[in-house]
Automatic annotation (TrEMBL):
Keywords: Methyltransferase, Transferase. One of its GO terms (biological process) is methylation. This is Methyltransferase domain-containing protein. One of its GO terms (molecular function) is methyltransferase activity.
Amino acid sequence: MECPTCHNTESSLVGSKNGHKLHRCANCSLLHVHPMPAADELLRYYQDYHKTPQYTRKLKSKQRRAKKRIWSLKRLTKGSKFLDVGCNAGFAVEAARSLGLEACGIDLDEASIKFARQQYPMGDFRKISAQDLAASAERFDIIYCCEVIEHLAEPHSFVDALYTLLNENGVLFLTTPDIAHFSVQQNLLEWTAVRPPEHLLYFSKPALTALLEAHHFRKINFRPNLKPTIKLLARKDAAAV
Ligand SMILES: [Zn+2]
C-alpha cells in the first residue's frame, strides 16, 4: 500500500473504525484509510451530507468566528479576491463579503451550494472543484480552506490547484484535525474527528508541511491552538512564481 501523500510503502495498522482500516505511514506519519472507499460509497455518503447536524448548527456563531479570522487574513495581503474552498453553508463567504472582500465560495455538494444561495443571496457560490476552477484564469488573494483536506482520498491534485489559484502575494489559510495534538494522543481512534468514510486523511503538522512543500508552498506558519486543529498560513514560493 502507498501513502496518499508521501508515496512511502511502509505503514502500520492502527486499528479499524466504522468498518474502515486506518494505517499510519512510517515516513510522514499520515494516518489514512486503506483501502479507500469506492467512489459510489462516498457518493452515497455525501448525498445525505447536508442532513448531518454539523452542517447548519450554529451558523451565526460560525459566521462571527469566520469574520474574526478573515479580518486578520485581510491584513496580510493587499488584494481583495477571497475564495472559500469547500464553502459548505456559505457563512465564511458572507463574513468576507461583509468585510468588503470580493468573495466566492466553491463546493462539490449541490445541496450546500443551494442552501448557501438561499441563506446569502448576495454571495457568489459555485458548484465546481478547486481543480476545475484552477483551470480557469481566475486567481485569489486569500484562499480559505477549513476542514476540507481530511475528506479527500487523493490530496495532490487538490493542493496543486490551491497553489495555482493563489495570487503571487496571496495567502492560504487551511485547517484540519491535528492527530498529533497532546489532547488526542491517547485513544486516537475514539476521537470524534476520526470518522471514516467522512474523514479519510488525518494529518500532523510535519505530514501537512511535507505535502504543502511538495507543491511549492513556503513560509508555512502554524497558529498555536489549544484545540486539536491544525491552523496554518502558507504563501507561494516567490522564486518559483
Ligand atoms: Zn507518508
